[in-house]
Amino acid sequence: MSQPSPATPKYPRRLSDASARERLFVGMLRYWFDGPTGQQALWQTLTTHLGVGDAQRLLSAFAAFLQAVTAGLRYDLNRPGVECPDLGGDEARLVAIVLAAGRQDRVAARAEIEGMIAEAEQSAVLDAAGRLGVLLVAIDKLDDFGKNSSIPRRASPTPMLH
Question: Residue 89: in which H helix or E strand, if any?
Answer without folding.
Answer: helix 89-102
